[in-house]
Amino acid sequence: MLEVFEQTNNAVSVVELVERLRREMNKTTVYRILERLEDEGTLHSFTGKNGLKWYAACKECSPSHHLDSHPHFQCRVCGKTECLFIDISIPPVSNYKIDSAELLLTGQCKDCLS
Amino acid sequence: MLEVFEQTNNAVSVVELVERLRREMNKTTVYRILERLEDEGTLHSFTGKNGLKWYAACKECSPSHHLDSHPHFQCRVCGKTECLFIDISIPPVSNYKIDSAELLLTGQCKDCLS
DNA sequence: TGTTTAATGCAACTGAGTTGCAAAAGTAAG
DNA sequence: CTTACTTTTGCAACTCAGTTGCATTAAACA
Question: What is the predicted pLDDT for the residue at B28?
């Protein structure tokens, strides 16, 4: 399972993971392992443009501190999805206690820009 | 349909809309009208924490220019979801052409902070 | 070896969103 | 009014990501 994330810097959708691991393990098992890896701080998840769930390897996450304010990019053309290691400053919102921020940028990646 | 959005400043999930309009129109019709209203620039949509679709009235949207960089807030406790009218500056990302940005903040709203 | 606990498989289910098609409602001539 | 045409709606069936219950297997450990 983790090999998938070691081979790429991109995020991987659960749908693709289930497909790629079809021979090795059951769909339910994929979901359960992903949940565990996220709890452990090895992976983090986010929701793609279409509402599908994506996972990516954590670089600077811990079990308690997940993906704070690092955005994700999803290419409208090829679907490639990846973490962007730039800092987004979330302005404080009065009267709200913000726990997490999820920023999804969509557009065209460099490969699809030609 | 639009009355729902006139009565509140909050966003409304499609699920809730279907439920509230159950007597007046079919589920399919709700989806179709929402799609039309979004095309026309009357409403804009975004994806909630759980992957469900939400709609909110447009204040400064046009058919071509939707919800650019205005974030949404979703309360972890009561589920209330609303537009935040603060500007988020998306730093330019080299080699990427960013078309849209969707920022979802989650936490506790003022009513649930007691 | 037996017992307990955790990990997996499988099948059936849930629920949001979609699709195809037919019925209804609206629009515009003739 | 009536016919022809277009748009809107309802309904049922479907798709598909994600979940659940339960039985089976594998690990851990006494």
Answer: 98
